[in-house]
Design a protein that fits this description.
With about 100 residues, this protein is mostly helical. It has a domain of about 50 residues. Helices cover about 55% and strands about 0% of the residues.
Length: about 100
């Protein structure tokens, strides 16, 4: 009787291994369900772009509060930089960029 259970367990483990290896019914198609970051690629990133960016959640990801704080800081710095750029160009400063 014990041999019968051992054979059944081995057969069950073999069936699971075959399914895991891709034999049998195929798995469904993989699709990307993550949100796009929506950062523009055709122009420089502006403060409003940083404020609207959202990242997808992951099991082992970053702390959302730290990422949000960094994006807020970068947005403020970009706004300050954009506010000073017309002053530099008016003076004819070559280091404006």
């Amino acid at each position: 009787m014990m041999w019968l259970f051992a054979v059944l367990i081995v057969l069950a483990m073999g069936g699971v291994a075959m399914l895991a290896a891709g034999r049998g019914t195929p798995m469904s198609e993989v699709y990307d369900d993550r949100p796009d970051a929506l950062v523009p690629a055709d122009r420089p990133i502006e403060a409003r772009d940083l404020r609207s960016v959202r990242f997808s959640l992951a099991f082992r990801g970053y702390r959302m509060s730290e990422v949000d704080a960094l994006l807020d800081r970068l947005a403020v710095e970009r706004e300050a930089s954009a506010a000073h750029e017309p002053d530099r160009e008016a003076r004819g400063d070559d280091q404006a960029r």
